[in-house]
Amino acid sequence: MNAYIFDSETTGLTDPHLVEAAWLQLENISSLAVTDEFIRRYKPGKPIELSALATSHILDEELADHPPHTDFRLPHGLAYMIGHNVDYDWRVIGEPEVKRICTRALSTMLWPSADSHSQSAMIYLHYRAEAKGLLQNAHAALDDVKNCRLLLVKILDALADMLGRPVGGWEELWEISENARIPTIIGFGKHKGMAIADLPADYKRWLLNQADLDPFMRKALSR
User: Fold this and answer.
1) Any idea what DSSP says for residue 43?
2) What's 79's domain CATH number?
3) Residues 85 and 126 reside in one and the same domain
């Protein structure tokens, strides 16, 4: 099964269009050796929001001669997509049928006391001496996937310590990630900050009846 670390730069948070995509193909979970890499820019079908410009520094006029964002395709055979807050990038490219491994969720589970679980914060936590150099081009898609791979090294080391053995493969890592994404604390509404297990039964029922409820919150409430 092929696993790829994927990252995108987009037009912004409102109906985002792809402007840059990058991925690393990983040989296997034991070595995390990179067997191929990809970086390409795309012309979006809408203007780039100022907030996105301030993050990626990719200008609309620089994309005039690039292929349209709708041309992007994932490599054939991709089974596992790895990323920090991977759902955002997955939605940008049309929600393909792949299993998603979220390094942000895994970081939150493994280092709960950290005051931030952004990818840059995690690089500072684990690679403090090198972090300034590693993050010099943060929010450039290829640099981001390379830094995500470095974070994945630390995640797998921590999981091996927790399990008493190395993670058995991509499927097991995906299962751990899925479990890590199920919240234990509610982060919104009148009971914000309360343990989900302690929520009033009628409030749980009301939430479960909401059609747009996050699927991982639904899992938490249904436990």
Assistant:
1) B
2) 3.30.420.10
3) yes
Do the Cβ atoms of 74 and 64 come closer than 8 Å? Answer: no
Give residue 95's region: left, alpha or beta (phi > 0; psi -120 to 50). Answer: left
Would the CA dihedral through 15, 17, 20, 26 be positive or negative? positive
Question: Domain of 216?
Answer: 183-223
Name the packing angle between helices 119-126 and 141-163 (round to 10°).
60
Kindly report the pTM of this predicted structure. 0.90
* Residue written as token pair 């479990």: 179
Same domain, 162 and 199: no
Instruction: Give the number of other CB atoms < 10 A from CB of residue 129.
Output: 7
* 216 and 120 fall within a common domain: no
Residue with tokens 């990058």: 22
Q: How many CB atoms lie within 10 A of CB 94?
A: 11
For 93-139, how does the pLDDT look when each residue is reduced to its tens digit (9 = 90+)? 999 999 999 999 999 999 999 999 999 999 999 999 999 999 988 77
